[in-house]
Amino acid sequence: MKQRFLRASTLVALLGVLLLSPVFAQDAVIRKNLAERIPQLPKIDEINKTPIPGIFEIRVNGTDIYYTDAQGNYLIQGSLIDTRQRSNLTEQRIDKLTAVKFDTLPFKDAFTIVRGNGKRQLAVFEDPNCGYCKRFEKDLQNVNNVTVHLFLYPILGNDSVEKSKAIWCAKEKAKTWLDWMLRSQVAAAAGCDTGALTRNVELGRKLRITGTPTLIFADGSRVPGAISADQVEQRLSQPGS
User: Fold this and answer.
1) Distance between CA atoms of 163 and 39, rounded to whole angstroms?
2) Which pTM does this prediction carry?
3) Residue 23: what pLDDT?
4) Residue 151: strand, helix, or coil
5) Beta strand 120-126 with 146-152: parallel, antiparallel or unpaired?
6) Are 82 and 51 in contact (CB under 8 A)?
7) Each residue of 21-50: pLDDT tens digit?
8) Domains in the chain, CATH or no CATH each
9) Collapsed DSSP state (helix, strand, coil) of residue 65
10) For residue 26, which phi and psi values (nearest 5 degrees)?
């Protein structure tokens, strides 16, 4: 009885290897050919099938997406569009890869702006010298019932760092921030522990935040760049946000 069980287990394991081996072989061919032909291409993190027969997704640098054929003879850079669903499959994939676990953000290094009941949550990374951020802040005044977690993200130069320090060290951070962003009232210089600003820049680099504003919603999705109040409202109204 025991021998029969062992034989059966061996057959199942062998069948699994036979079924999986073409997948591994295909993966190996693509990796080998692309590494030899395009040595400057970063190491491939993952290879996946796409809805198009014979076309594979390759992922590098964590979240960069390319496409190739089964032999790695061609490399395609760009968006894969599902014309039937009218959806950008590449964009959806990147959104999934770059999703942030909202509850793990270090909110102690941010200050909050609460409007209405504050039930909905939004985190924003902004530089005080960012023109797009100022436009975004004006639009954001029209969004109610939200708590905005504002992460100062001074990446546009030394003046941005100095302004961020003054805002972070102010007694009323939110008011001082809005006075500057909406009314161009410069914050008075003040001294305090500004380690949060350094940590924010490090966090932003880790999350690959390369521009401001960058919005992160409660469902983990992010939006790089300024969007309108209506667009923010739409995203906040989605399930899980």
Assistant:
1) 43
2) 0.74
3) 58
4) strand
5) parallel
6) yes
7) 555 678 899 999 999 999 999 999 999 999
8) 20-97 (3.10.450.70), 102-236 (3.40.30.10)
9) strand
10) -60, -45
